[in-house]
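Problem 12. The chain below contains 196 residues. Write out its predicted structure in token notation.
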Amino acid sequence: MEINDKVVIVTGASSGIGRATAELFGKNGAKVALAARSIDKLGAISASIADSLVVPVDMTKRDEVRLMVQKIYDHYGRLDILINNAGRGLRSSVEHIDHDDFAYIMSLNVYGPLVAMQSAIPIMRKQGSGTIVNISSQVARATYPGLSAYAATKSALTVISLTARKELAEDGIAVSVIYPRGGKIKLQVHLNRKNS
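Solution.
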């Protein structure tokens, strides 16, 4: 995949996988939109990425997610890659899952990425190409005591992603799922840059 000059949204860009992903894209010539709630952290990261944009967003608020995508599109005039990384875990036995906590992580881990996808898809379809990468988890592929609620959100995101992959293939939109393990991911990405 050619990365140089591509417009990339990274949600949850203020730390961890999101920050590492944003910095990797920035080092390879992408125009990176950094999205998260932590404006101060995003500002510090943006200072090290040449063509970046800070967009504060709470991924549990659907109107903010839609506005985020629109702001980025208005700023850059296109949208090539959406990395849905924002998310949070929840550790609890099934017997003791707090319904409000479960609803919150469903909103953050599933509904937020879905709204971002729904906002990006028409733009990518009009362009004739695009890439959506949803960060799931290894917990979506097995059962781990104490992680059922979190696994349920990541399983839902995985199924939505794999279904969207089939639905959007004819539109030139690629959809991928990444399954980090233990909150860590080893980035083994081969990026092509234009020869200068």
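Discussion. Helices lie at 16-27, 39-46, 62-76, 99-127, 148-168. Students who got a different answer should revisit the alignment rule from Section 12.3.
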